[in-house]
């Protein structure tokens, strides 16, 4: 299945709460987008960045729709650009669980969301959700009858605000300190 899956990183949002494009916000030596790119690189799958939604102002559904409409792959693994702690190991779990037909959504503390692994055939349902102005990811998961995969909360910490960025920087410093202590 892996050879037929493409990774799409969503980086086309408005970043209104951050006040500047999140994809370009620096966290250590990398941008938020750079962290996600680095983390997915180990999967050895094609990677695309969705920088402009074909259907604007629909939240993540606009990016998901864009990814599905423009892919040549049979399925798309979708991750947001603002989750710098997302691991390749977690995404490998999604790939192993994917049967090629049934969509997978991550779930953290009963909240449905990313990562999302969708067959290209899911596009009509995504389109209907957009037409109905049902933009919430949990609504899409329900409409598409997705399987839910538990995800550790720390990996899906997303950076939406300057306060979130400060917390992400704190987590990075803490991780670096732990690494130094082990050496």
Which helices and strands appear, and what pairs or packs with what?
Elements: E1 5-10, E2 26-27, E3 30-31, H1 32-41, E4 47-50, H2 60-70, E5 75-80, H3 88-97, E6 104-108, E7 111-119, H4 123-131, H5 137-144, E8 147-150, H6 162-182
Parallel strand pairs: 1-4, 1-5, 6-8
Antiparallel strand pairs: 2-3, 5-7, 6-7
Q: Could you please describe the fold and organization of this structure?
A:
This protein is of the alpha/beta class and 183 residues long. The protein has one domain: Alpha-Beta Complex (Spore Coat Polysaccharide Biosynthesis Protein SpsA, Chain A), CATH 3.90.550.10. It contains 6 helices and 8 strands. The chain has helices spanning 32-41, 60-70, 88-97, 123-131, 137-144, 162-182; strands at residues 5-10, 26-27, 30-31, 47-50, 75-80, 104-108, 111-119, 147-150. The strands form 2 sheets. A 6-stranded mixed β-sheet has the order 4-1-5-7-6-8. It has a two-stranded antiparallel sheet with strand order 2-3. β2 (26-27) and β3 (30-31) form a beta hairpin. It is globular.
């Amino acid at each position: 299945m892996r050879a037929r899956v493409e990774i799409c990183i969503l980086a086309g949002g408005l970043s209104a709460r951050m006040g500047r494009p999140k994809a370009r916000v620096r966290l250590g030596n990398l941008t938020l987008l750079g962290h996600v790119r680095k983390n997915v690189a180990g999967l050895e799958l094609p990677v695309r960045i969705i920088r402009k939604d074909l259907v604007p102002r629909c939240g993540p559904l606009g990016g998901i729709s864009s990814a599905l409409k423009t892919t040549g792959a049979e399925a798309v693994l979708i991750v947001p650009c603002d989750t710098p702690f997302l691991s390749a190991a977690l995404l490998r779990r999604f790939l192993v669980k994917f049967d090629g037909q049934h969509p997978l959504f991550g779930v953290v503390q009963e909240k449905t969301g990313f990562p999302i692994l969708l067959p290209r055939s899911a596009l009509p349902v995504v389109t209907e959700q957009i037409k109905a102005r049902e933009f919430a990811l949990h609504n899409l998961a329900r409409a598409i009858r997705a399987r839910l995969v538990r995800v550790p909360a720390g990996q899906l910490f997303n950076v939406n605000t300057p306060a979130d960025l400060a917390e992400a920087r704190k987590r990075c410093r803490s991780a670096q300190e732990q690494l130094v202590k082990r050496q």
